[in-house]
Amino acid sequence: MSHIASFIFPVIACLMVVAWVLDPDGTAHLAVPGILAAVAALVGGYGLVTENRESLGTDPGIHRLLGVLHLLPSAVATFVGTLAIAGGATSGAFGLAGFIAD
Predict the structure, then answer these.
(1) 28: alpha, beta or left, given left = phi > 0 and alpha = psi -120 to 50?
(2) pLDDT along the chain (102 residues), means of 10
(3) What does 36-62 look like in DSSP terms, one character per residue?
């Protein structure tokens, strides 16, 4: 369950931020997506720690795959969020910390 949530949350958060690109005159809301990304990092980290403690015999490459699946949407959202902050079109700019944490 934790791996599924950690796959989905960063993608949803990224889509919420990238939507600002389609409406650059609007406001990029970073608070809720940033919180989702931070929750994904916590859930994914918990899943990895649990897997290392009580290994079910999964391939070690799955950990790298999880890392990439977190890195790509969070990197895109961080980039777009930084552009929105630079343009002064954000609300909840602290949410960028959630993407950086992820």
Answers:
(1) beta
(2) 73 89 85 89 79 69 75 90 88 86 82
(3) HHHHHHHHHHHHHHHHHHS-----THH
